[in-house]
Design brief:
heterotrimer, A mainly alpha (313), B mainly alpha (197), C mainly alpha (194), B: 197 residues, two-stranded antiparallel ribbon, C: mainly alpha
Chain lengths: 313, 197, 194
């Protein structure tokens, strides 16, 4: 009798492009930055990434068990764990990614209803939470290959070097990744390879990353800063291609996405140049995440000939 | 005595202003970054609440309906001014910490709300009980909130170091997001245990 | 001069956002924000009353209370001014602009107890703002209020149809949302040295 009613978990229309497939592609796209991070930061990076992914999966399983849901895992927690790990300094204590993934999975995602219902990007919420709660631990950097410098470690990223010491890092270092920073953000080259893969597979489109990055570049020019530096420094490439393109937390409409990208760009530059923090990518994306419901509302395309009598929307 | 106690206990538990009635939020979040702040703020509010409830109930038969709100406000403002001056004189450090939230007790929804909803329609003893009860309920939540935030965000409780020295305080708890978070979870716990929504 | 005003405005709007960072006016924030239309209406009403009340209370303070050494009446005088102002505005709107009254009139009685209006009146005095600064500050604060409440309403409408765990439905998840919004706003800390 049980075989008559095959009750399975959705999706029931099988398509190539389901959540699992997309998560798969994102993980593949993240391989180049992961490898780059490990090359530059060594065993420490492997440790943090492993803890991050493992604890992410554990929290996800635990929360699903508590909720009593029997969903098959769709790989989103692996992506969250990996993205969070890549957004951390290699020198953070082991418990940072554990707490961070808890915040990401439980606080930012499951409490809101799970995958597809979260308003804010879970990995970024975790990163902001961690940064605000443990500023010292979260801003202790190392230079690649374990090299140390005479300057204190907390100043070892291109953006902090700029903000506090007015020192520019050479382009080639920024591009290849020979610089301090989070595990995944340092190698622009590796990130671009990963992003290229996602474009090729059709997982992301240009409407958010391109406006985002261009806005940063243009505003940098207007404020008489080096646009190429600002595009390559910090977490912009990582953020623009991998975090600001998250389906759930960004607008659906075309113009909404473009506005989203521009908004992120504006806030990123403002915080970088005039704000208290050296980097503004995380906060800008989170702020625009909060604006997303409004953006979706205000950019709904009007059907042809549609007019609300006498009043404009 | 019972006429006093019943509304008093009600204000603390069944109709707790913060968790159940959802009023009086502004000062709750702002001052609850440390447990001791909660005590001072709570007692200040309780004093105003009890006093205004008492007075409103006393004169309720002679207050015309149309101008009752301005009259309530005047009464409340008077008590708040008293509390403001007393605290400024006798507890200046706490006065500076609580800052703008002491005068803001005037627009604390709890006080005007109880004057309107209870004291205007009930006897003097009951109103006094309600005022004290609501005030104590408010104070209780402030202390709990303050305690949680201070413990997690600073490792201390009432200024005493509780957490071991290896504990790295979760700084976000004493910042605004932590405040919202703590209340959200307290409310969820309340709801889970079957509190009235 | 212009930059000073701009900084004052941005500080009030974003860096020290009245709702998400300074915790003022929260009752209305949670009470009214479950729908977009009420939030917009409330935002409009708050802006209107706040700017008006700031100006009037500033004048009251500087030309009456201080010269007559009646500073201790600050609390009573301000709150009664606001209450009276709200009554006048309501009557005025009802008679002269029924459409505007319909748009925001119902929120006016609620505004009397809106902590933000009173708070701004106090802050204008304690920060020794001149008249222009008070106006700019109140526009900034009410702008920040409106921004936060409208953003919040947008999110709450989206959450309303989500499978939130039962214990968190309603206010708890709203508070969690406010917490995360507040976290996002923390990014503005230190902007322009504010």
């Amino acid at each position: 009798m049980g075989e008559r009613f095959y009750v399975s978990a959705p999706p029931h229309i099988k398509s190539r492009y389901d959540a699992r497939y997309i998560m798969h592609q994102v993980v593949i796209a993240l391989i180049p930055p992961t490898v780059a991070g490990i090359i530059f930061f060594g065993g420490r990076a492997i440790l943090i990434l492993l803890i991050s992914v493992a604890s992410s999966v554990l929290w996800q399983r635990l929360i699903l068990y508590i909720k009593g849901e029997r969903k098959p895992l769709d790989g989103s927690e692996i992506v969250t764990g990996l993205l969070l790990g890549l957004n951390l300094s290699p020198l953070v204590p082991w418990w940072i990614p554990v707490v961070g993934t808890f915040v990401a999975i439980v606080l930012a995602k499951e409490l809101f209803g799970g995958l597809g219902f979260n308003i804010f990007n879970p990995a970024l919420i975790a990163r902001a939470f961690l940064l605000v709660s443990w500023p010292m631990e979260m801003t202790t950097w190392m230079f690649p290959y374990g090299a140390t410098q005479a300057t204190s470690l907390t100043q070892a990223t291109p953006l902090t070097l700029l903000k506090l010491q007015h020192t520019y890092t050479p382009y080639i270092n920024l591009f290849l990744g020979n610089r301090g920073g989070c595990i995944g953000e340092t190698s622009v080259l590796a990130l671009l390879i990963g992003a290229g893969y996602l474009f090729y597979k059709g997982v992301i489109d240009w409407k958010i990353p391109v406006p985002y990055i261009s806005t940063v570049g243009i505003l940098a020019l207007i404020f008489r800063q080096d646009p190429l530096f600002h595009i390559m420094a910090g977490g912009l490439i990582l953020g623009a291609f991998f975090m600001a393109t998250d389906y759930t937390t960004t607008p659906i409409t075309k113009s909404g996405r473009i506005i989203f990208g521009i908004g992120c760009g504006i806030i990123t530059i403002l915080v970088r140049l005039f704000g208290g923090y050296p980097e503004g990518v995380s906060f800008s994306i989170l702020f625009m995440n909060a604006m997303t419901p409004l953006l979706d509302r205000w950019t709904i395309p009007k059907p042809f000939g549609y007019k609300i009598s006498g009043r404009s929307v | 005595m019972k006429r006093l106690l019943r509304p008093l206990v009600n204000g603390i538990i069944r109709e707790n202003p913060i968790l159940i009635l959802m009023i009086g939020l502004c000062p709750t979040l702002a001052v609850s970054s440390a447990a001791i702040n909660g005590i001072y703020m709570g007692l200040a509010a309780t004093f105003v609440l009890a006093g205004s409830n008492l007075l409103v109930s006393l004169i309720r038969k002679w207050v015309p309906d149309q101008i009752r709100i301005p009259i309530f406000i005047t009464i409340i403002a008077t008590f708040v001014t008293i509390v403001d001056m007393v605290m400024h004189a006798y507890a200046p450090d706490m006065y500076n910490i609580l800052g703008i939230f002491i005068p803001l007790i005037v627009v604390n929804c709890i006080i005007l709300g109880r004057a309107e909803a209870f004291a205007y329609h009930n006897g003097v003893i009951e109103s006094l009980g309600d005022g004290i009860g609501m005030g104590l309920g408010f104070t209780l939540i402030l202390i709990v909130l303050g305690g949680i935030r201070e413990l997690l965000g600073n490792g201390t409780l009432f200024g005493f170091q509780i957490m071991p020295s290896s504990y790295k305080p979760v700084i976000i708890m004493i910042l605004p997001p932590g405040a919202f978070l703590t209340i959200g979870f307290l409310q969820a716990i309340q709801r889970y245990r079957g509190g009235k929504s | 001069m212009l930059t000073h005003f701009l900084l004052l405005f941005i500080g009030a709007l974003l860096v020290n956002n009245i709702l998400l960072i300074r915790f003022i006016a929260l009752c209305s924030f949670f009470g009214v924000s479950n729908s977009m239309s009420t939030s917009i209406g409330m935002g409009m009403a708050v802006t209107f009353v706040m700017v008006l009340a700031s100006s009037v209370s500033w004048i009251l303070w500087h030309f009456i209370l201080v010269p007559l050494h009646l500073e201790f009446l600050e609390i009573s005088a301000f709150i009664l001014t606001i209450a009276a102002l709200v009554q006048f505005v309501e009557l005025f709107l009802k008679k002269n602009s029924p459409s505007l009254y319909r748009a925001m009139g119902i929120y006016l009685p609620l505004i009397t107890t809106n902590c933000a209006i009173l708070a701004v009146a106090f802050i204008n005095v304690s920060n020794h703002y001149n008249f222009i600064e008070s106006i700019i500050y109140s526009i900034g604060v009410s702008g920040g209020y409106t921004l936060a409440i409208v953003m919040f309403a947008g999110i709450r409408e989206r959450i309303a149809s989500a499978p939130v765990p039962k214990a968190f439905q309603g206010y708890p998840i709203a508070f969690i949302t406010a917490s995360l919004m507040s976290l996002a706003f923390l990014g503005f800390k230190g902007l322009f040295g504010l």
